[in-house]
Amino acid sequence: MESNQTNQLISSWLSFTHIQTKITDELEAILQEKHQLSVKEFYVLLFLSETPNKKLKLQELQTMVGLSQSAMSRLVSRFEAKGCGALKRHHCIDDRRAIYTSLTEEGEEKLKKALVTFQETLEQAFADENIQAELKGIILRHIKR
User: Fold this and answer.
1) Which residue(s) pair with 103 in the sheet?
2) Taking the C-alpha atoms of 63, 15, 114 and 71 in order, what is their torsion angle to the nearest 10 degrees?
3) Alpha carbon distance 19, 130 (integer Å)
4) Which of 2, 26, 28, 70 has its CA 20 to 30 A from that of 115?
């Protein structure tokens, strides 16, 4: 690959990650302000809500969200607390070492409210003319002709 193509590809990648970081920061701020949730906490609720039984093994969930075992354990503990009650832990019947985390009704309600905010924030971000122009530029530079 030519040096110019390499530089252009890296530049596009950096632009793309800049946009993603900007939008994530906006989501983080608004979720914290309106729902006392971080983006990672929102993802935990979302991923659990998308499973048939609204539960996942703790290890699966930590991989999906991108947290360490200890960080995920702390997050679940906070969400299990009496004041929140959004999640509940269960030991696996077949393998007592495995721990499942499930979404409670309180968690579903918290997610339902946060989903509206999350979607509105994404819609505003993608409607932003500067973001649209930057994304369009990135895509057009790399479409095979």
Assistant:
1) 87
2) 30
3) 10
4) 70
